[in-house]
Each structure stands twice: as C-alpha cells, then as structure tokens.
Amino acid sequence: xxxxxxxxxxxxxxxxxxxxxxxxxxxxxxxxxxxxxxxxxxxxxxxxxxxxxxxxxxxxxxxxxxxxxxxxxxxxxxxxxxxxxxxxxxxxxxxxxxxxxxxxxxxxxxxxxxxxxxxxxxxxxxxxxxxxxxxxxxxxxxxxxxxxxxxxxxxxxxxxxxxxxxxxxxxxxxxxxxxxxxxxxxxxxxxxxxxxxxxxxxxxxxxxxxxxxxxxxxxxxxxxxxxxxxxxxxxxxxxxxxxxxxxxxxxxxxxxxxxxxxxxxxxxxxxxxxxxxxxxxxxxxxxxxxxxxxxxxxxxxxxxxxxxxxxxxxxxxxxxxxxxxxxxxxxxxxxxxxxxxxxx
Amino acid sequence: xxxxxxxxxxxxxxxxxxxxxxxxxxxxxxxxxxxxxxxxxxxxxxxxxxxxxxxxxxxxxxxxxxxxxxxxxxxxxxxxxxxxxxxxxxxxxxxxxxxxxxxxxxxxxxxxxxxxxxxxxxxxxxxxxxxxxxxxxxxxxxxxxxxxxxxxxxxxxxxxxxxxxxxxxxxxxxxxxxxxxxxxxxxxxxxxxxxxxxxxxxxxxxxxxxxxxxxxxxxxxxxxxxxxxxxxxxxxxxxxxxxxxxxxxxxxxxxxxxxxxxxxxxxxxxxxxxxxxxxxxxxxxxxxxxxxxxxxxxxxxxxxxxxxxxxxxxxxxxxxxxxxxxxxxxxxxxxxxxxxxxxxxxxxxxxxxxxxxxxxxxxxxxxxxxxxxxxxxxxxxxxxxxxxxxxxxxxxxxxxxxxxxxxxxxxxxxxxxxxxxxxxxxxxxxxxxxxxxxxxxxxxxxxxxxxxxxxxxxxx
Lengths: 344, 460
Prior knowledge:
The structure holds two protein chains of two kinds.
Chain A: E1 3-4, E2 7-8, H1 9-36, H2 44-54, H3 58-75, H4 77-86, H5 88-108, H6 114-144, H7 164-188, H8 191-222, H9 228-232, H10 238-256, H11 259-281, E3 284-286, E4 296-297, H12 305-332
Antiparallel strand pairs in A: 1-2, 3-4
Helix pairs in contact in A: 1-3, 1-6, 1-7, 1-11, 1-12, 3-4, 3-12, 5-6, 6-7, 7-8, 7-11, 8-10, 10-11
Chain B: H1 3-18, H2 21-42, H3 45-79, H4 81-115, H5 122-151, E1 156-159, E2 166-169, H6 172-176, H7 181-210, H8 214-249, H9 251-257, E3 269-276, E4 281-287, H10 290-296, H11 318-347, H12 355-364, H13 366-383, E5 386-388, E6 392-393, H14 404-435, H15 448-452, H16 455-459
Antiparallel strand pairs in B: 1-2, 3-4, 5-6
Helix pairs in contact in B: 1-3, 1-14, 2-3, 2-5, 2-7, 3-4, 3-8, 3-14, 4-5, 5-7, 7-8, 7-12, 7-13, 8-9, 8-11, 9-13, 11-13
C-alpha cells in the first residue's frame, strides 16, 4: 500500500471516512434533533419556523450520508458488503425513516388543513426519532463487533442487535441530536420561541449527560476492552476532556445568549465522541466477536492501491468544492428565520 | 420464493419507482434553465411566473427522487454483498464521485433554487438553477458509467479465485469510457429531457384546454416543444447507436431483443410480435432481414442468435425483453411523430387550434415515462443471467447471510411505503397543477391557514 505524507492510503481513507461520518452526524444531527423535538413546539407558527430553519439545508446535509456510503463502498468494499448485509433490518428501517422525514418536510406545507399538518408533524417527528435510534443502535453494534465467518459474513441473528450497550448508545444518540437540534433552532429563532428553545436545549443537555454517563459506566463495568486504548495511551485522554469541557460550555453560553458558541460546543461534543469511538476500533472496521482473526480491518477490506489513489484524488479535488458551496448556501440563509411566500 | 428472486424483485421495484423521478428532475432542470434564462434576458414577468411555478413542481419531484435514491446506494450492500465485494473496487469510485461531484452540487444549490428567490439576486439564483441542473446531469454520468461497466466491463483485471475473486481497476478512464458508456449516457439524458419536457407539455396542454393561464401556458408549451422535438429526433440517432453497441458487445441481449435464435440466418426486425421461448419461435409483423440491415447494412448477413449461447448463459425472459424493447421503440416513434407534427403546426401558426392535439399532449406525459422504464428493463433483463456481463452471475452476487423472510419483510415494507408515497405524490402534483401559476405581487399565494397565525406574512 502506497503512502501520502507519511500515512498509508488505507489510514488516510479511514480518516476521510471518519471525517465524513462526523460531518454527517454534526450536520444531519441538528436536522434530526430539530425533528425529534418538533412536537415540543406547540404553535403552528413555531413549527413552521422550526421547519424553515432546516428547510433550505437539510437536503445538503443528508448528502454526507450518501458520500459516506460511497466512501465506504469504494475504499473498503468488504466492510460495506459485510456491514449493510448484517444490519439488513435495522438499516432498512433507518432508510424508510429517511424517506418519511423527507416527504413529511415536503408535504406538510402543501395543505392548510389542521389534521393534515398535525399528521405530518407526527410522521416527521417519529421518523426523526426512529432514524436517530437506529443509527445509534448500529453504531453501538459496530463498536461492540459482530460474529463473522472467514468470508467476513455476519453469522448472528439480528435480534442480538438489541443488546443493553447498543440500546444505551441508541438513547444517547437521540439525546445528543435533540440537544444539538435545540441549540441550532435557538440560533435561528428570536423572542419567545428562542427562550423556549434555550430551556429545551438545557433540558436535553441534562438528558444527554445522564444517558452518556450511564453508557460510560456500563461500558467500563461490562465491556472494559472498549476503553483499552484510551486507558493505555494517556495522551488520548485529551478527547474525553475536550468533550466534557464542551458539554459544560453549552449551558454557560446559552445563559449568556451566545448561541453560536453553544452550537460550536455541541459540534465539538459530537466530533470528540466519534473520535473516541474511532480510536478504540482502529484498525478494525468491524471486529469479529467470535474470532478476532475474522475481523474486518483497514488492511484486509481495502480496495486496490490504484483505486485508493483515485479516491484520494477525488477527495482532494471534491472536498474544497463541497466546502465552498456548502458555506455559500449556509451564508445565504444565515441569521434568524424569516418566513416568506416560498417557505414551507 | 427464494432469496434471489425476492432480491431481484425488490431491486427492480425500488429502482423502477425511483426512476420515475430523476428523469423528470433532469428534464425539468433543463426547461427551468431555459425559462429562467429567458426571464433574465427579457425581464418579462411572464417568465418569472412560469419559472417559479415550475420550481414548485420541481421541488416535489426532487424531494421524492432524493428520498427513494438513497435506498439504492445501500441496497447493493444489503442485498448484493457478494456483488459489492466483487465490483467495489470499480463501482465504488464511480459512486463516490457521484456523491461528491454531482449530488453534493445539486443538493447544495437546491436550497437557493427553492428558497433563495428573495435572498439572492436574479443572476445568482439563475446560477443556482444551472448548478442544480448540472448536478443532476453529472449524477446521471456516474450512475450510467457504473451500470455500463456492468454491461461492458473495461479497464479492470480479476484478482483472486473462486469465492475471493474480484475485479480491480487498472485504467480509470478506460473504466469510465467503457464501450457502452457514451451511447447509454446520451440515451439516458435524452430520455430524461423527453420525460421533463413532456410533463411541461402536458400541464400546459391541460391549461390550454381549460383556457386558463393562457399567457403563461402558450410560451411554456413552445419552450417545452422545442426541447421535446430536438430530444426525440436525437433519440433516434442515439437509439440506433446504442443498438449497434449492443450488437457488438452483448450479442445475447440483441438476440433476445428481437427474439432471434438461429445464428446462421439473417435476423428480422419486428414491429410487434410474440416470442415462444420453448419452441424457439418468434411470430409477428416483421421487416425480413431488418436487423441484419441495421447492424451490417446487408439484409442477408447472419446475426448471432440465442442458440449460440448455452441455455444457462441466455436471458431467462426472452419474450419480456422482446416486448419491453418493442414498446420502447414504438414510443420513440410516436414521440417523434407527435413533436414533428406539432412543430409543423406551430410553423404554420396553428399550434393551439386543434383541441384533440392538446388532449393527446395532456396524456402523452405517460409515454416517455413508460419508455424510460421499459428501456431499462430491456437493458437489465437482457443482461441476465449476468450481473456483470460475462464475469459474475446474478445468483452469485447475493448476500449469503440474508434470509428470504428478511427480504420479504423489506419488500412488503417498500411496497406499502411506495404505494402511499405515489398516491400522495399524484394528489399533490394534481393540486399544484390545478392551482396553477400565481402572481407573486399579490398575496394570493399565501393560504388562509398560515396567514392567520403568521404575523410576518400578515404585515409583510
């Protein structure tokens, strides 16, 4: 395997894939969180403002998932094949959730009727909750590992996905997204809705901290090997530390009305969480719980050297372009939401 | 039913449903670029109204296209894991390029296209429209390249043996420009332009019939007719070139398309017919030696027939391939006749005089849709029993750890969800069309429900 700036191509691609997934979690995370807390907003106008706060950008955010899927397929085809065929049922539930989220946003505003809108509010919020939970459930199982045969195929039963650790991760993910979404919405709103959202944001921060604490304690007690690498390499302790400081910073900034700082802190929280997961699993992409030799790693799942070169080139050209027009779109829709005749 | 047939049905169903929308997005994208371009050039408010009306329809179509498209990207992994491992090295880079170069472009600028009318200047908005259109065109490039590689693999070598065999890339550009990419991409784009322009034709024909919104309906009809005329004529050339490619690269598919069995004989070209695969006989109305003439410019030249292939290497559903192919050809011919005739009337200044023609156009929206669907069914069923032509059999591409009842579960789920989605789509599309273009200088556009509890709009 060739190398670039001292790192092997497959290590680079692990980092690229991790960055894309973090990008997806941070960007679609606030859309999903905003959706999950949608029913906490009672007034029709509040709900419309909340929808239009994500309206012009949620679709662009979802693209990160598409890029992540493509990145895994291209760079680590064996992992792509194993992971999605293993998570057959939960992944389709996740995808159906994405469909309903998309159409609920699109359809809700098309009829003025109260029942029509209320139904879509429910579909929308429920879909977002299902998406967050199934995403967390799969993340938990990837972190734990799955039983795999020597052909790197899943040999277990899908009901085993519902283990206590993964369920805790699922709940934590939902809590994290709700906190993140509430802060994002606070950033986009004003007056009474803003006040309401800052209260919600603080409540969800408490919800997140509690579920994260329970998950951590459970991990340390029952799955100690999931913290091996951070325990044996004290320099990595910087990441949990950064995360704690970022979380602590959120209510402080919300109290001061510095919602942009609060939002940045919650982005940092998500990123450091995923970095900790990445540190623990590396170089595995999917750990085989029955026999470590069957694990899918960045060494045995990687595409050919030629493909890796092409992919890194695509990433090098593509990333600045995507960053450029994403920031242009965000800049166009910056500031508080104003409803107009094109709004949802 | 076994996993293979269930997975094939699920893939066919989800991709066919998805494929209602992307061609409409591409075709509408092109018409939107023309409409908004006319607005920028003339500053005539008619074109503004027209553009903004079609943006709303575009939003609805695009939304469902995205929602159903994400499924496709992951369905390779869920249902076709062995295939994914086999082609990942090649297919993956095309999909990754699609995501980052095409999909990110269109989804990013979509926000400005839909919501940016009051936020950015007209030129920037036009730029966003062009970017969304280009993004959808690029999307087609990478998806068709990946699919074409499955039809005519190039720029690769096979590494490993048996269960561990897989294709690895040796030449990226040879993979991208494999023997069928360019033909099939052109064919797909033109099919998309037809789908989009015929939707615009249909809606405006309906307004003309109802004598509503005439000041917008007539110029919009003419814009779409121009696109449809050029596309349908080009499609004839592109179709011929595609068939030539199939003759050269996938002889078994060509033989199935015309129900031709005997390799020593000249092949006929059917206008319509029926294939009896058991007796290896095709009957119907045919131009004797027509296919031989098209391929070799000689009515007597023999064409490779299905008998040249072992039974296990032939497409299983010859009659279906034959029928789908002939429906596509017939539709192509009807579209040419329709657009040429309408253009002739336009030239004579009588385009909107014939009510029956407007009625035909109002319903003709279905034709390119059917044509696109059956065209793809011809291409994909004609490639069977291979998922990668000559290299990997469809039955060897499955996810081995996925059971039939899991696939059945997801298939039922998709059937339910897509049925509801399709009904809602038609309902909302119909409603938008009935509502029609509106004047954005009045408040007519704001529905009562939202006006009442929206202070910004009340005072704005």
